[in-house]
Amino acid sequence: MNTRFSVPDIEAEALVLMLSLLDIEGVEESRKGKSREDACLTDEEVAFNFQAENLKVSLAELRDRRFALSLDEALQTDTAALSTLSLINQGEHDDHLSALALERGDDILIPTHSQEVLESTRFPFEFGSTMSSNSDITGVVEPDPDEMDKPGESSLPTYYGRQFSVRDRIPPRAECIICGDTVRRSQRFKAPCSHFYCRGCLVNLVEASTRDETLHPVRCCHQPLPVADFLALLPSDLRSHFQDKSEEFATPPASRIYCPNQTCSEFLGSPSGRRSEITCTGCGTRVCSACKNRAHLYEDCDENANAQTSAIKSLASQMGWQTCPGCHAIVELWQGCYHMTCRCSTQFCYLCAALWKTCDCRQWDDQRLLDDAERRVYNEFGAQEAAARPAIFVDRVYQRMAALEENHECRAHEWVYRSGGGCCEECHDNLWTYLMRCRRCQALVCRRCSVNRL
């Protein structure tokens, strides 16, 4: 009779056998040294040895049975997942054949069973997981209401005996605004501006926002993405890191306290009101909450701060850098006018650090004005035009200089594709295929900066 043991039963039986083996070993240890080495084994000792061998064989059999049960459980658990993967692969293959048919101008093919199932179902992936992870993809939820034909929806003429609805003509897919890949409705994220993101680009954007505060809050077309909606798409480690950085970036820059240990620099929160000492949880450094430097038990904050900031101020003065009046961050102007907008949103004059439009400083340096006008004309008309008609190029530069003196701000970008690679003027990434060009200010940026930063 075949009896199917459960895993707890096997583990309990194995425990009994192990305890019996320990008892036998205990008896053998107690007999050592009480008989001659060349003496023959007694019947009792032979019986103990025989019993020990039998117990070891039984334990090996239990281990094999436990391993077989594990394989059986894994097979039962993964059957649905393997079927789902097979369905997805077949659907992608059928999509490819349909795309080739459309490219040749052939008639619309009848959707296969795999395509119909994929169009009307969602596969509940875990947060930020992939197909090869331990995510639960065995279940299939009901179709999206907006993917189903509405009652009374008009239909097209029959094709091969089948009626095609509007949904059949317009597949529920969209292009990712960043990479341009076609993404199924069940595997994409829709921003408030109606742009779509594939999971990979969304995760990359959130990860970049934890390193670059100018990308925070995560947004598209100046509209913040609902955090509660995209947190479910992030890996657990990135989700936790993003929440920590969100708390940091939500703290006013002037109130942030960081660990002064240069190899740590962990965010420690904001001052509580009165002077206190904060211990860094990362490296153990003790920090003064008032001056934000290392704790100084017997010194005033002014004396301690002066000793540590004089070198930085001296370097900033030598390099021509300026200090933001809002958050006291050191900034550098590398192109454009003297109107500065800090990451803390403070607008100020780069020459005197006064709030913008509260001083009488000039807005442009002549050389910077010429350089910016030349950059804009070069971006708009290209290198070939400048080389082919240099005199016209120079005239355009001086005309642009005159226009910039009157109006140099671009309040609303108007982006168009510009073929050919180059360096993004915002994040300085090099791209091979194309950049986005603003028709107003002629800025050349990558796709991400055009929708997520500017």
Task: Give the tally of β-strands.
Answer: 21
Give a short account of the largest sheet: 3 strands, antiparallel
Our measurement of the CA-to-CA distance between the termini, rounded to an integer number of angstroms, reads 74 Å
Which strand order does the major sheet show?
17-20-21
Structural class: alpha+beta
Mean pLDDT: 80
Query: How much helix, percentage-wise, in residues?
Result: 40-55%
Number of helices: 11
Q: Shape, please?
A: flat
Give the strand content: 5-15%
What are the segments in which pLDDT stays under 50 over at least 5 consecutive residues? 124-171
Query: What is the CA-atom radius of gyration, in angstroms?
Result: 35 Å
What does this entry look like structurally?
With 454 residues, this protein is of the alpha+beta class. It has 11 helices and 21 strands. The longest helix has 62 residues, at 43-104. It is flat and about 115 Å long. The model is unreliable at 124-171 (pLDDT under 50).
Distinctive features:
three-stranded antiparallel beta sheet, alpha+beta, 11 helices, two-stranded antiparallel sheet, 454 residues
Write the layout of secondary structure elements.
Layout: H1 7-31, H2 43-104, H3 113-119, E1 155-159, E2 162-165, H4 166-169, E3 173-175, E4 182-184, E5 188-190, E6 196-198, H5 199-211, E7 219-220, E8 223-224, H6 227-230, H7 236-250, E9 257-258, E10 267-269, E11 277-279, E12 286-288, H8 301-319, E13 322-323, E14 330-331, E15 339-341, E16 347-349, H9 366-388, H10 390-406, E17 415-419, E18 422-423, E19 430-431, E20 434-438, E21 444-445, H11 447-453
Antiparallel strand pairs: 1-2, 3-4, 5-6, 7-8, 9-10, 11-12, 13-14, 15-16, 17-20, 18-19, 20-21
Helix pairs in contact: 1-2, 2-3, 5-7, 9-10
